[in-house]
Amino acid sequence: MTALANPVTFRLAALELESVGRAFDVAGTKFDALRDVSLTVCEGEFIAFVGASGCGKSTLLKAIVGLDRGFEGSIRIDGKPVDGPNLDRSIVFQEHRLLPWLTVEANVGAALRRSGLPSSERKQRVAEQLDLVGLSSFAKAYPAQLSGGMAQRVAIARALVTRPRFLLLDEPLGALDALTRLRLQGELARLIRHEGTTALLVTHDVDEAVTLADRIVVMKPHPGRVARILDVPRHAIRDRSSPAFLRARDEVLGLLGVPGFVEEPDAPRDRPAELQTA
Q1: Annotated Gene Ontology MF terms (predicted)?
Q2: CA quadruple 155, 157, 203, 146: dihedral positive or negative?
Q3: Is 4 inside any structural domain?
Q4: In terms of pTM, does the model score above 0.90?
Q5: Are 225 and 59 in contact (CB under 8 A)?
Q6: Which of 95, 122, 92 is nearest to 109 (CA)?
């Protein structure tokens, strides 16, 4: 593996995307969902993908997790090609996708059915994860008895119980109300730091991306491609009203073409180093 630099320290390259593309046949016409996407993700890094609908963000996550092998280019973990799903990668979707006939603890434990772990260790892991997401007292509850935010925390616990190296998040908070979403953003950041997981988040919420990510991959559609990769100054961002936060947010909005925000084609020489593009 190759040592790469980032704004804080040196880390090892864990995931490499090289010229990744994905095309679909739509009514006899080739449609390029992704084209020439290249990215290196460091161990323990939090990456957020933002962009308009149709720019291939979710398609890219499915390829990385191993659910879609019809892509062009190369996806490698530690230099080895991804050729299918593996317990080292877990994914959380926008809908919690809990099984309604299973209790909370049984839904989380379902992720360990093929782990080969003894029953006692599976039970211990489930209990630990439910405690971590603050739902130990709801272990015997059913999904219909939970709020939306609680159900999504169960889905996150289910994804983390296998202790994956990579956690892929496909708009996991998108269906929640604003207040619940804000609370779970903090919980999600805490859980990922606690587990030391490398995370890749797809979101339409620019504030969410700036709050959580070490780097933001701004994508553009038709075909889906990388427009810019921005470093987020984690050491400078204290809250959503800080100048560093507002600069980072406004730059992303400009790259997305939001009216009132201007895309900067080139970083000026006197721009703070922590906001230079990667």
Answers
A1: ATP binding; ATP hydrolysis activity
A2: positive
A3: no
A4: no
A5: no
A6: 122
